[in-house]
Design brief:
4 helices, single chain, 5-stranded antiparallel sheet, mainly beta, 12% helix
């Protein structure tokens, strides 16, 4: 009897506790504000200045950020000339090489389509030193790519990096045939329809920063850039990374450091950003309005390296993203069903012929698989990039 009474008391307490719980929904989660986000640097080197404008979205929503068009964007010298950027769509604004006077300060000026006016603080021109080298270490079944750089004048101290990745990969099976929909027949696959080897790529989605401020010499040694798993298709055959290096002021470094902490908790740099992340950009008529971003003025140093699969442990093998299984068989005459499987499964179906099946020098059918397992073009491009160099 006492045991039953004890159980009853526990159930009552549990019920009381559950009714006392209230969901915590802070106002910031459903905030309707769409603050301006400014990405890019004013490039003082030989490359173009590219600025991307977008707006924040509700953290609780599933909508991704989109570009802000119909803006007038310019680079302005303190007490001097202005240089207008050309809109390219999707919130992107571009101007060719500026070659600015390093003795002056510059800012970014923005007038949006709804006549709001924004500008960054005037900032000094920072000189970015060249990248010394890019290398990699094998650690915990991963490829850890790192960068080395230095400033002999000890004047940089604060650095940021971004990168573009490109890799060559192949489909699970190499298809020697294809379906001619006009002839309604299986034909040899021409070179123009090659679908085995492809190229894919991505841009950095994390913030990579480093500092030598606590060191006696301005040297960055083996700063981690990115990590690639041993099972990744990126290193299946040949991989390339184009690393870009930016010199930062101390204030810019602090902004990116805070941004890094937030994005590591919420997602990537291109995800919706919390409104607390403000930088050196302001609404000139409403200083209280948060604006996300930090404009620096510097030249950009870049370096490209390649990594071959032959440079990596031999027992590493990529994980194919689809469950392909063994090849299936389609015959012109299936003795069990009395059906033309080639016609039904391949020609009129969605299966891709891979190899022919012969009997006494005659083709009696084909092996086949899915398009995901035979055509790399659904995930990449066959065309070789202009910068690509084979080993």
């Amino acid at each position: 009897m006492k045991g039953k009474r004890y159980i009853l008391i526990l159930l009552l307490l549990a019920g009381i506790y559950s009714t006392c719980k209230k969901p915590y929904n802070p106002k910031i989660v459903d905030s309707p504000n769409h603050y301006l986000v400014v990405e890019g640097v004013i490039n003082n080197g030989s490359d173009s200045t590219i600025i991307k404008l977008s707006r924040t979205v509700k953290i609780s929503g599933n909508v991704s950020t989109s570009g802000v068009d119909n803006c007038a964007v310019s680079v302005e010298a303190e007490g001097g000339a202005a240089y207008s950027l050309t809109p390219r769509g999707s919130g992107t604004y571009v101007i060719p090489a500026l070659n600015l006077d390093a003795s002056k300060k510059y800012r970014l000026h923005i007038i949006t389509g709804d006549s709001k006016e924004y500008a960054s603080d005037y900032v000094v021109v920072k000189k970015t030193q060249p990248i010394d080298s890019i290398g990699f270490n094998i650690k915990n079944n991963n490829v850890q790519i790192y960068v080395n750089t230095h400033d002999a004048a000890n004047s940089t101290r604060y650095y940021r990096w971004s990168y573009d990745e490109t890799w060559r990969f192949h489909s699970r099976y190499q298809s020697a045939y294809m379906v001619d929909q006009v002839l309604k027949a299986v034909v040899f696959r021409p070179v123009s329809e090659s679908s085995y080897y492809c190229f894919a790529g991505s841009k950095s989605s994390t913030i990579v920063i480093g500092s030598s401020a606590k060191l006696s010499q301005d040297v960055i040694y083996q700063q981690p850039v990115t990590t690639i798993a041993s099972t990744s298709e990126k290193i299946e055959t040949r991989y390339s990374i184009l690393l870009k290096q930016y010199a930062l002021t101390k204030e810019a470094y602090q902004f990116w450091e805070n941004m890094k902490k937030n994005t590591e908790q919420l997602g990537s740099i291109f995800d919706a950003q919390p409104s607390q992340l403000t930088g050196n950009i302001h609404n000139l008529k409403d200083p209280a309005e948060p604006v996300i971003g930090y404009i620096s003025v510097t030249n950009i140093q870049s370096k490209r390296v390649f990594i071959d699969n032959a440079d990596l442990p031999r027992d590493w093998a990529p994980t194919y993203p689809y469950d392909c299984g063994p090849l299936d068989t389609a015959l012109f005459f299936n003795p069990k069903t009395k059906q033309n499987d080639v016609l039904g499964i391949i020609i009129n179906g969605n299966s891709i012929p891979v190899l022919d099946i012969t009997e006494k020098m005659n083709v009696i059918g084909y092996t086949y698989s899915s398009i995901e397992c035979t055509d790399c073009r659904i995930r990449g491009r066959v065309q070789t990039p202009s910068f690509w160099i084979e080993r």
